[in-house]
């Protein structure tokens, strides 16, 4: 989803930064400013027409641009690596107790409808000489959330990444998610939430360790 005009630097308001253009030909400058990802914006414009809208009306003029930027951000997980997030954030530590980071907000898009699903992630691990900064666990959740996902795979990817990075003795991940594709259409179960679990190592194999993890997550 990288912009095809990556040389064009655009800030949050869609204004181009320091492009060195003179304002004698304001029209041309404006046109450049409005462009972020022309191909993607064209697709959004077609979508607007297809649902019966007029992309030229005032409220929608900048919508293709906004959608292109928003989708770029919401799928930025494809362009980010685990290594990038972790650089120098893993520390040696001889603690052996279970570490749990609870209530990490996540926002993702379901791959079946490209509608949001969101909720809370709880991530725990049994260290094996290495620990990770708590904020990095949240960044890891973001990394895998900002892609088209199904909740089960998202849960597993977080667990596998934690296991690999930390060479932990065990990892447990629980996600509670609400899905717009269920809430807004079809069944319309506004209050339903989907819980998915992924466990690895001791937290998978040892029923007692697993039970302790699940109890702490629920408390
Ligand atoms: Zn869906």
Describe this structure as you would to a colleague.
With 219 residues, the chain is of the alpha+beta class. The chain folds into two domains: 74 residues, no CATH class; 137 residues, GTP Cyclohydrolase I, domain 2, CATH 3.30.1130. The chain has nine helices and seven strands. Helix 2 crosses helix 3 and helix 5 packs across helix 6. The chain is elongated, with a radius of gyration of 22 Å. The N terminus is likely disordered. The site of zinc ion has 6 residues, from loops.
Strand content: 15-25%
- What is the CATH architecture annotation of the largest domain? 2-Layer Sandwich
The first-level CATH class name of the largest domain: Alpha Beta
One letter per element, helices H and strands E, the order comes to HHHHEEEEHEHEHEHH
- Give the overall silhouette: elongated
Q: How many domains make up the coordinates?
A: 2
CATH homologous superfamily assignment of the largest domain: GTP cyclohydrolase I, C-terminal domain/NADPH-dependent 7-cyano-7-deazaguanine reductase, N-terminal domain
Bound molecules: zinc ion
Describe the SSE topology.
Layout: H1 26-33, H2 38-50, H3 63-74, H4 82-86, E1 90-92, E2 99-110, E3 116-126, E4 130-132, H5 134-145, E5 148-149, H6 151-166, E6 170-179, H7 180-183, E7 194-201, H8 202-205, H9 207-218
Parallel strand pairs: 2-5
Antiparallel strand pairs: 1-4, 2-3, 3-6, 6-7
Helix pairs in contact: 2-3, 5-6
The structure holds zinc ion.
